[in-house]
Every structure is written in C-alpha cells, then in structure tokens.
Design goal:
Layout lengths: L2 H17 L3 E3 L11 E3 L1 H20 L4 E4 L7 H6 L2 H4 L1 E6 L6 E3 L19 E4 L3 E3 L9 E3 L5 H6 L1 H8 L5 E10 L14 E11 L5 H21 L7 E5 L11 E9 L2 E12 L1 H5 L4 E3 L4 E3 L2 E8 H12 E6 L2 E6 L10 E5 L5 H17 L3 E3 L5 H11 L3 E5 L1 H6 L1 E6 L5 E5 L3 H6 L3
Parallel strand pairs: 3-9, 19-20, 19-21
Antiparallel strand pairs: 1-2, 4-5, 4-6, 7-8, 9-10, 10-16, 11-12, 12-13, 13-16, 14-15, 17-18, 21-22, 22-23
Helix pairs in contact: 2-9
Bound molecules: glycyl-adenosine-5'-phosphate (GAP).
The site of glycyl-adenosine-5'-phosphate has 17 residues, from strand 10, strand 13, strand 16 and helix 9.
C-alpha cells in the first residue's frame, strides 16, 4: 500500500474504533489527556480475549508457570534497586523557538520538527510518574507508578518459591498496567502513557556458557512467534530484530524486538530480553536448589508483550474493505476466538410477535452457552449485517418465517456473506467449531 493509503487506513481504524465503541480518547469531554485512552464495551472484550488467550497459552496451560497480580504501587526502594530511578530515561530536546519538547533520539537533522527552530542541548528525562503515598508530600512518601510489571514479579520471587517450591527452570507471569511519562506519545494507542503489559520472567540456572541461556532465549523466540501467528497476525508482517548494544535497556545483555508492519511503519510490538541475574542480584534474592543443595542467583529470560500494541495490530490486521451486493462494506476479520461478539441474533421483522418470541428463545439459549451473543432488531437486515461486520461478529443468526415451520435459522458468515440454514439444536456446535 502507498504511504497515503496507509495513513488513511490508520485514520479509518481510529474512526471505526471510536464509532463502534472499541476505543475512546481519555477524558474526551474535557479536551482529552495526551497519551491516555479508554476502552469501550467492545474494546474491553477484545482486550480480554487477547489476555485470556495469552494466559491460557503461557500460564494455565503450562506446568512450569505461576501467575501473579502484584500491586502497581511499590516501595520506592524497588525502583532504586532496579536501576529505574537512575536510568529509566529518554533524551529530551527542547526547541529554543516554540519550546515544544521531543525525544532526542527520534530527531533526524537537529531541527525542530514543529517550526524548524534550533534545538537546545539534550537532557535525560526520567519517564516514571511520581506520586506520594499518604498525606505527606515529602521525599520519604515519594514513589512511582510502575513503568514495567516485571519488578512485581522479582520482588515476589522468594514468596513464590517458598509457597510452591518450583524446580528451576520455571516462570512467573503477570498482566497489568504500566505507566510511562512518554515525551511524545502518539500513533493512537501505540505509544501511550498508561498501557498494559503481559510479562513473563523465566528463571534459569546461572549459565556456564552463552549456549546455556541462548537455548532458552531461542525457545522463547519461537514460542512468541508461534503465539503471534496463532492470534492471527500475518507471519510476513512480523520481524525479529536484535537490538544493538547501545539500544539495550540498562538491565539487558541481549534483546530481540518483534516488530510488526503497522499502518504507520514497522515498529516494536513485543520483545524478549536476557536480563541475566541483574534484578534478583540487586534485590538480594537467591534460590536454594534442593537437587544440588546449592544456593545461587537465577538468571532470567523475559518475554514481554504490550496488550495495547496487540490490540492495534489486530485491528489493523482485521480491517478489511470489500464490496458486497454492489455496496462497499467494511468488516473486521477477527479470528472468532478474538471477536468481541461471537454471534448476533435477529428477528427478521420486529413487528411480528411470533418471530420476535422465537428469536428471543434462540437468543436466550445461545447466550446461555456463549455469553458474547447479542440481540439486534434495529433497522433492516442489511443494516444489521453491516453493523455486525464492522465490529467483526463472525455469525449473524436470523429467525424468519421458515424458522417457525422447521426450527432452522439462517446463519450468515461475516467474511463471505454466505447464508445457510442450520437446525437450532446444531447452532452451538456450529458457532463453536472455530473457537
Ligand atoms: N519489562 C520489560 C519492558 O518493559 P519494554 O520493551 O520497555 O520492556 C515491553 O516494554 C512492551 O510494552 C513493549 O514491547 C510494548 O509492547 C509495550 N510498551 C512499552 N511502552 C509502551 C507505551 N508507551 N505504550 C504502549 N505500549 C508500550
């Protein structure tokens, strides 16, 4: 696609996301808040589907993984020991003329991207949000909103070992909010100031050679890629990029970013880092191995995923325009497992009580088993199909006069528009076949 088309596609996605209740600008009625977004009724379902699939694959579906939900607020010492208080910063450049601020490393020719003015010398800007715990606002009460969920895992390492006595290697995973006071938030939900992460810290024995940690690293590269493809991202749009030494975070010995072809360019979707024993060592935590009777500090491989970037990638991947019945239509081609709504039930006509009664019966029986089922009797059938297409509902079930005779409904497939008659008693199996 040409650049202009991609820009237009992005605008259409943002507009559809708002129109159909996926994503709204945060605090919009007060002019918004830069870099902050709210998820509407369908956005929250899509996000939950992503998180549930991830949790099933990487946590509950495995024997060697433990789930966690640690607090966002942590003792400020965590952030001193983790190196974030001193080193979690981006270079900030300010224009001498218009006083706008930019991320220094993103500026190409040292001229202000806004007015072309001269940029003042760069300074480091720490991206953690400060806050105060309790009524006093002095330095002893100061802490930060967590900029990564990972530290909640590290500081609970001993608790989990004491409760479950896991054999190494094992992992601890959590999903939760993270906050970064980004200098330049942008590209819709791609770079925001409040976002959600899904992270795993996978603890391994201290390696005797590079090969020992590399095999785990390679394993997690393969697992990450497989999952990204499983949720429906096109293989050819996902790239692995090893970061250069200068680009590594302060804790990482090696990082591989998974980049994705977003409509605005190829950018980081998720990543994988070899954090060595940096964090556990700094928190003075170690592990007693019952097998070897030795105490050591485990090393860590960290797969990390941004939920919001996955939402955006999936929206971009799903957004499709085509022509049906001589009319242009837009539809979201989500895999059924990700679709916020799995099925919509319609009475053909809403002024025919027998049809409405039968349709309510079908709706209630399907909804009982598949809660992501909705009722829609608003407007003509064509309009209802378009509405469901735009939110990515895989199946529309219409109750018509034939239903009253033979207990079948028409099931319309979102992608092809094809309709077939299915016995009501077969509906659940039919809808579930693709989950
Ligand atoms: N614990 C490691 C860590 O936080 P990171 O690469 O800084 O690593 C992990 O962040 C993931 O979090 C990224 O790959 C991205 O998906 C997501 N992420 C980071 N900053 C973000 C932001 N400002 N807005 C949305 N997602 C972000």
């Amino acid at each position: 696609m040409a650049n202009d088309d991609l820009k237009l596609k992005m605008e259409k996605i943002v507009s559809l996301a708002k129109r159909r209740g996926f994503i709204y600008a945060g605090s919009e009625i007060y002019g918004g808040l830069a870099g902050v977004w709210d998820y509407g009724p369908l956005g929250v379902e899509l996000k939950n589907n992503i998180k549930n699939l991830w949790w099933k694959k990487f946590v509950s579906g495995r024997e060697d993984m433990f789930g966690l939900d640690a607090a966002i607020l942590m003792n400020a010492r965590v952030w001193e020991k983790s190196g974030h208080a001193a080193g979690f910063s981006d270079p900030l450049a300010e224009c001498k003329k218009c006083h706008q601020r930019f991320r220094g490393d993103k500026i190409k020719n040292r001229a202000c991207p806004n007015c072309g003015g001269e940029l003042a010398g760069e300074r480091q800007f720490n991206m953690m949000f400060e806050t105060f715990v309790g009524p006093a606002k002095d330095s002893s009460a100061k802490t930060y909103l967590r900029p990564e969920t990972a530290q909640g895992i590290f500081v609970n390492f001993k608790n989990i070992v004491d409760s479950f006595h896991p054999k190494i290697p094992f992992g601890v995973a959590q999903i939760g909010k993270a906050f970064r006071n980004e200098i330049s938030p942008g590209d819709f939900i791609f770079r925001s100031r409040e976002f959600e992460q899904m992270e795993i810290e996978y603890f391994i024995r201290p390696p005797e050679s590079d090969k020992d940690w590399q095999k785990f690293f390679d394993y997690w590269v393969a697992e990450t890629r497989a999952w990204l493809e499983q949720i429906g991202l096109t293989k050819e749009k996902i790239y692995e990029r090893n970061l250069s030494r200068e680009d590594l975070a302060h804790y990482s010995k090696k990082t591989a970013d998974f980049e994705y072809d977003f409509p605005f360019g190829r950018e980081e979707l998720c990543g994988l880092a070899y954090r060595t024993d940096f964090d556990l060592k700094n928190h003075s935590l170690d592990y007693y191995d019952e097998e070897t009777k030795k105490t050591f500090i485990p090393h860590v491989i960290e797969p990390t995923f941004g939920v919001d970037r996955l939402v955006l990638a999936l929206l971009a991947e799903a957004y499709t325009e085509d022509e049906m019945g001589g009319e242009k239509r837009i539809f979201l081609k989500f895999k059924p497992a990700l679709a916020p709504i799995k099925a919509a039930v319609f009475p053909l006509l809403k002024n025919k009580p027998a049809l409405v009664e039968k349709a309510r019966e079908v709706y209630e029986s399907v909804k009982k088993e598949i809660p992501e089922t909705i009722w829609d009797d608003n407007g003509n059938i064509g309009k209802r199909y378009r509405r469901q297409d735009e939110i990515g509902t895989p199946y529309c079930l219409t109750v018509d006069f034939e239903t009253l005779e033979n207990d079948t409904v028409t099931v319309r497939d979102r992608d092809t528009g094809k309709q077939e008659r299915i016995k009501i008693k077969m509906l659940l199996d039919f809808i579930r076949q693709n989950f």
